[in-house]
Amino acid sequence: MRTLPCRRRVRIHCAPLHMTGPLLETQGLTVRFGGHVAVDAVTCAFHAGELTAIVGPNGAGKTTYFNLISGQVAASAGRVMLMGQDITRASVADRCRRGLGRAFQLTNLFPNLTVLENLRLVIQSRRRTGFRLFSLAEAHHELTTEALTLLERVKLDTLQAQKVAELSHGNQRKLEVALLIALEPRVYMFDEPTAGMSADEAPVVLDLIAGLKAERDRTILLVEHKMNVIRSLADRIIVLHNGALAADGLPAEVMASDVVQEAYMGKDLADV
Question: Check: CATH 2.170.150.70 for 1-90+186-199+216-272?
Answer without folding.
Answer: no
